[in-house]
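Page 37, continued from 36.
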């Protein structure tokens, strides 16, 4: 079920050049299932016309308090809307909102709203740095308003680069979806996710590693963040872009992974141990690069630390701990043994030889094994698997945090 289907979003557009990007925000939110109503300031309509937004959302854009048929609509929308997003939010718009002005439809609606407000500032870097703008932003944040950006990047032609550029539409949409979805037990929950492989040094050039892509862990981190959790993602080497809003910690070796997990563990409410740490490392790494001409090189391997087992004495009281078991035999049996031996609440088990379910693919076929039984899931995308895992975890989390 789409968690934001039918949710009411007002998308305010004030008068900045970044208004052209807001067309993509309107489209993406509509495609995600939200019911989007665009409200243009007079200056905003100079940059992108109302007909454009009507074509993207299916609703006529609102441009004036005196628009025929819109009497008191600012009050109704303020009461019925689940979220208001303003992108771009110019320095002028921020000043009016901070002072409680209501001299057009958008600012009047903002005074009447009851749901969350997400402001996405965009302006010249000197305007952004001005003490009045900074004071207005500080005041708005103190009132619980969510402020996203601006970022450093190219500004209007001739203005070079600087802090003042509006964040990209995809990030705005992600933060909007998070605000629409945030709810217990995820709000305020601290989630630690591990992802990807680790690498163990063989010589100054070569490493021992595995084929993990990190996709499963990254999907879990994104989904947990979208639900409202505060997420830290500890990742080994991958080519993946980090999810928006997630605190990313890069690691290389299994020892690095263990240290990063140990540092975050005391405040972690949910640990999702999706990483694939190397089980072995060279007992004596070579001091120089081995040459092919030298012939056979014999390498003795020794076990690395069991990162998940080592968390047992350091776990936060009441934390939910989820392990992963990628096997080449009886995955379910191995998962049940891991559940008991490592004192876990849930194990996500899968067979590496199953078509479409091993490493380096975008799909997975898993069985969720807990103390209350097992759920065998069909082959699905890893984003969908992440949803299923967190749906299974949610009642455990709610029970332990009660």
């Amino acid at each position: 079920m789409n968690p934001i289907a039918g949710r009411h979003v007002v998308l305010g557009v004030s008068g900045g050049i970044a208004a052209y990007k807001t067309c993509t925000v309107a489209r993406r939110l509509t495609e995600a299932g939200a019911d989007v109503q665009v409200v243009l300031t007079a200056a905003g309509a100079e940059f992108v016309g109302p007909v454009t937004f009507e074509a993207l959302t299916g609703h006529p854009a609102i441009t004036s308090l005196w628009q025929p048929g819109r009497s008191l609509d600012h009050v109704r929308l303020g009461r019925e809307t689940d979220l208001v997003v303003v992108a771009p939010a110019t320095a002028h718009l921020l000043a009016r909102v901070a002072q409680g002005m209501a001299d057009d439809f958008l600012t009047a609606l903002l005074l009447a709203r009851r749901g969350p407000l997400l402001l996405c500032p965009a302006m010249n870097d000197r305007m952004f740095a001005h003490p009045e703008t900074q004071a207005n932003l500080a005041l708005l944040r103190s009132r619980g308003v969510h402020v996203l950006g601006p970022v450093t990047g190219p500004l209007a032609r001739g203005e070079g680069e600087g802090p003042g550029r509006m964040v990209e539409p995809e990030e705005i949409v992600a933060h909007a979806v998070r605000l629409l979805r945030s709810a217990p037990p995820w709000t305020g929950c601290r989630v630690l996710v591990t992802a990807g492989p680790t690498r163990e040094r063989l010589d100054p050039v070569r490493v021992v590693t595995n084929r993990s892509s990190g996709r499963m862990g990254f999907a879990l981190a994104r989904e947990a963040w979208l639900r409202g959790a505060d997420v830290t993602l500890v990742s080994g080497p991958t080519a993946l872009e980090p999810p928006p809003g997630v605190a990313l910690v890069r690691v290389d070796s299994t020892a690095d992974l263990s240290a990063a997990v140990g540092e975050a563990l005391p405040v972690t409410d949910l640990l999702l141990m999706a990483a694939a740490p190397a089980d072995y490392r060279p007992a004596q790494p070579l001091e120089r690069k081995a040459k092919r001409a030298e012939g056979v090189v014999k390498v003795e391997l020794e076990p690395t630390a069991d990162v998940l087992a080592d968390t047992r004495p350091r776990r936060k009281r009441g934390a939910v701990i989820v392990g992963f078991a990628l096997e080449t035999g009886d995955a379910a049996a191995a998962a049940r043994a891991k559940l008991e031996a490592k004192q876990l609440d849930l194990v996500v088990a899968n067979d590496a030889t199953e078509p479409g379910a091993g490493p380096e693919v975008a799909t997975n076929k898993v069985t969720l094994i807990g103390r209350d039984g097992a759920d065998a899931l069909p082959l699905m995308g890893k984003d969908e698997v992440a949803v299923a895992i967190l749906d299974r975890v949610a009642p455990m989390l709610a029970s332990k945090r009660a």
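The chain has two domains: 8-181, 190-401. Flag for discussion at group meeting. The domain at 190-401 is CATH 3.40.50.10300 (Rossmann fold).
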